[in-house]
Amino acid sequence: MQHLRSLRVLTPPLRAGLTRAGGAPAVAPPAIFAAARWSRGLFATAPAPQNEGVPLPNRSTGPGKSTISHAPGHTAETIMPTDNQALVSKTAEALYLTEMMRGMALTLQYFFQPKVTLDYPMEKGPSSPRFRGEHALRRYESGEERCIACKLCEAICPAQAITIEAEPRPDGSRRTTRYDIDMTKCIYCGMCQEACPVDAIVEGPNMEYATETHEELLYNKAKLLANGDRWETEIAQNLKSESLYR
């Protein structure tokens, strides 16, 4: 046997048995040693030999070490994995132990860092003064309604979610008798608030108004005025902080 043309199962017992008569190492191409190191027991086929004079690893140099002659007068020492090391490596890869340890190390790294989440609804983050939430109708400090029934908000609403009916008062002014908002149609664009000349209709800071029925999201004038009375202090502060930009 002058050359080894193929190697099916690359295991230490087979490598130890690949010797010539008399104990001399058999000649094999360098690709065999590369396959022996990286295949870890898998099936591999070595290409046809390109040159001669490259001996197989000499097992007598010590456990896990071998001397390979790459060229005349030049040798290099390589570390060959033992059977136990290969078995442990295979087991770790098969059970994803390596990836699991990497993931747990990353978790441990973030465990001692400051928290970036809030325990909602017990904890709440700050909201912007421009936040557009639940609608409200405001009053003057005297208790009189601000709305003058100009219907600008109804006309500018792109979703046609606002319905207003009005009638004149004995003093000649106009006041609304009906002010409905279909909250399921509203797109929270804020155009009704921008169009109102007296800051009567606003989108307040409240965002927690989920309901169980559709009818509960059809707001009437009484509901909107109640929202305004509840959030008047915060609404006034937000409008004041935004007065320079309107």
TrEMBL record:
Any one GO CC term of the record: membrane
Any single GO BP term: mitochondrial respiratory chain complex I assembly
Matching PROSITE patterns: 4FE4S_FER_1, 4FE4S_FER_2
Segments of this protein annotated with the region Disordered: 46-76
Pfam family, one: Fer4_7
Biased composition, class Polar residues, residue ranges: 58-69
Single GO MF descriptor: metal ion binding
Keywords, alphabetical: 4Fe-4S, Iron, Iron-sulfur, Metal-binding, Translocase
InterPro entries: 4Fe4S_Fe-S-bd, 4Fe4S_Fe_S_CS, NADH_quinone_OxRdtase_chainI
Domain of life from the UniProt record: Eukaryota
Cofactor dependence: [4Fe-4S] cluster
Transmembrane residue ranges: none
Start and end residues of each 4Fe-4S ferredoxin-type domain: 138-167, 177-206
HAMAP family for the chain: NDH1_NuoI (MF_01351)
Protein family membership: Belongs to the complex I 23 kDa subunit family.
Name of the protein described by the UniProt record: 4Fe-4S ferredoxin-type domain-containing protein
